[in-house]
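User: quick one, fold this
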Amino acid sequence: MGPNPVLKRLGFDDTDRLVVIHTDDIGMCQASVSAFSDLSEVGVISSGAVMMPCPWALAAVGIQLKNPVVDLGVHITLTSEWKNYRWGPLSTRDVKSGLIDNEGYFYHRAKPAQEHADPVAAKMEMEEQIRLALQVGLKPTHIDTHMGTVAHQKFMLDYIQLGLVNHLPPMLFRMDENGWRQNGLDENTAKLAVQIMMNLEAQGVPLFDHLRGMPLDTPENRKERTLAQFAELPVGLSHFIIHPSKNTPELQAITPDWPCRVADYDVFIKAEMKELIQNLGIHIIGYRELQQLLPSSPIVFS
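Assistant:
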């Protein structure tokens, strides 16, 4: 696959390395909101996304209301992964929608959500999450997907269309069929994804080359491991995911991987990280720059 045209359109060379440093899961709990508030002031991270069905979503939106330059999108959410801390759809409580498990919440994992969800109901839910974000005052810069759930032939086209009709770049990748399959798509969905991405890129929709991030496996040597990940970023545009949260009793009660989330906060709260990353020859951008590249004319999906 050739060089990403986004690089030249943003004034960079085809051999440059660009990255969006993205905070996931904002609004999941209070610890995620206060962490993002602190980190957005330091300026190392360059974007984040709010989980609108979650209890602390409105507080997350409030960060941008106080500081309009904050780069925040909508983290399209169709799953609820924790054992004792759950959330469900905004658009319906009808079990016939296929969005709700036998406990009354979103399914824990992407696969059962993909298997059970009615695509019309899923579209309505995605639409409602964007609508609510706009209603409460968020000026989103993009949409992306929680746990990759929308990466399925039942949801993908609606996800893309809902982003573009609202002038929000969807998080999408310019990969071949093998790349999509390695990221969990079945053969038919992988073929569909390649066709869609080629079509979108030809019309000027910005796409990412690579998905990277810090695994929630161990907090040990988090800074060194993080810098090693950045050093190894390939040429092109990367979406780099972190999950920073402050250390609170609530966070510890929600998830066993809380030490990794706290470690991400501890690493990125240090202003020196921005210089260390830039010294690796990496250019940090946000979704706001990508939003400005979206074509003003309607996108043709045929």
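User: anything notable?
Assistant: The chain has a mean pLDDT of 96.
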